[in-house]
Specification:
The chain is an alpha/beta fold. The protein has helices spanning 13-23, 35-45, 62-71, 89-97, 110-121, and strands at 5-9, 28-32, 49-52, 79-84, 102-105.
Length: 122
């Protein structure tokens, strides 16, 4: 059976590791540490889902990456979950307005995230 691919995008290696451990047994996990490399990896690798932090260094933050994914006809079908410390209701609304499929606030439940992946990818 071919594993679904997940791209984990976070500038903190420990958060990428936590997410990779949570999903690694069931999914093929790839990582990126900033917005530019995340979008490039999305275009090149065509993951089934992207777990995307909002606040990252560099020219593109997570919302800009999400906008770029949603604007590209070849990528717009990819499931995108925001995984971020920004937990105000307005942040959630902004994420949804940009086209996020899900929004997880750090600290989050890895089991809930895994459940979301299972229900959206399998």
């Amino acid at each position: 059976m071919i594993k679904k691919k997940i791209l984990i995008v976070d500038d903190h290696a420990d958060m990428r590791r936590l997410l990779a451990i949570s999903a690694g047994n069931e999914y093929e996990v790839m990582e990126a540490e900033d917005g530019e490399s995340a979008f490039e990896a999305t275009r090149r690798l065509r993951p089934d889902a992207v777990l995307l932090d909002i606040m990252m260094p560099g020219a593109m933050d997570g919302l800009q990456v999400l906008d770029a994914i949603r604007a590209d006809p070849a990528l717009k079908h990819i499931r995108v979950a925001m995984v971020t410390a920004r937990g105000q209701a307005s942040d959630l609304n902004i994420g949804k307005a940009h086209g996020a499929d899900a929004y997880f606030v750090k600290p989050f439940s890895p089991l809930k995230l895994l459940s979301w992946l299972r229900s959206n990818l399998n």
